[in-house]
Amino acid sequence: MKVEPQPGHDASKRKRDVSIASVVVVALLLVAVAIFLPGTSARNAAQEVRSTYAAHLQGIESENLTAAAGGYEANATVVFKGKAAGLIGEYTGITNIKVLYDVILSPNAFGTVSISNLTSGVNVSGGGMKATVNSTFEMNGSSTMLSTLHGGRLVAGTYYARVSSSTSYVRDGNAWLISHEIWDFGTFNLAT
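Now predict its structure.
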């Protein structure tokens, strides 16, 4: 027995084939855009990280412990090296990082903090899930504790530091958190 095609059967099959072909073309276009225009999401990520880093430095400058220490992963590491006036060391875990900032942001350590001459660059990697900010900046202000470290007596003084920094971020949901940070104090001068 021979089966005769139903009238209109070829037309409905062609419509279905055209619909499938249209979906495939749209999918291929979306893949092409994702492959050939990755800079769009990288630019957005870079801007987000740049803004997050600026807020981090603002937290330090305003001597706000919550803002300064709040942007780290629980197991993050902060390294102070170079000429850091007794602060050289590696601080791992949010508890130790909070202690570090509690000490340096206290009125007796970096009594006042001013950050200036910031230059920075952001590199986004890991499919937009990781980023590194490399920067240099100057810090200056007044201090009591730092003068004590260098003279053995409690004398108010001023300080000036030139810092090169590398701050690594990871995306955690909608937030960027610091996973690793290095401050290399190239210059650290005290005057009493």
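Confidence is low (pLDDT under 50) at residues 24-40.
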